Amino acid sequence: MKHVALISPLILAAGCAATDALQVARFAPDYQGVQTSLLAGDLVQFHVRMTGARTGDDVDAYAECAAAQYTLIRGYGFARHLRTNVHEEGGVWSADAVYTISPALPAGLRTMDAEVVAAACAENGIPMV
């Protein structure tokens, strides 16, 4: 004889909501600063550090926010991501990211409109340069 368990979709949804709320409550990032180095005329390197990151994506977003704000500070509107190296040791996350900045939308796949990214960073509470 087969037994079939029926689980209410409401119970499943409640379980998911509780898990999501728990994950949100645990995310308590501590953004520990940005170091910016101008490598060449339009080539910029960003070193960022933070604790409380959920994954490398959080520290990558921090670096992207720094790049967006720096781009705007320099009077440019766009940037192109070249690379990001993310490292975690003892709960401290760091990223070393390199971007080119430009007044016009550059060629490439990983480009950003600095104003749009900076606005999203401000909305999400991610500090910038």
- Quick one: overall form? globular
- SSE string: HEEHEEEH
Strand order of the largest sheet: 1-2-4-3-5
Q: How many domains in all?
A: 1
Tell me the quaternary state.
single chain
Assign the CATH topology: Gyrase A, domain 2
Overview of this protein structure:
- With 129 residues, the protein is of the alpha+beta class.
- The protein has a single domain (29-124), classed as Gyrase A, domain 2, CATH 3.30.1360.
- It has helices spanning 9-26, 56-73, 114-124, and strands at 30-38, 43-51, 78-89, 92-102, 111-113.
- It is globular and about 40 Å long.
- Residues 1-6 and 8-12 have low confidence and may be disordered.
In short:
This protein is 36% helix and 34% strand.
Give the SSE map.
Elements: H1 9-26, E1 30-38, E2 43-51, H2 56-73, E3 78-89, E4 92-102, E5 111-113, H3 114-124
Antiparallel strand pairs: 1-2, 2-4, 3-4, 3-5
Helix pairs in contact: 2-3
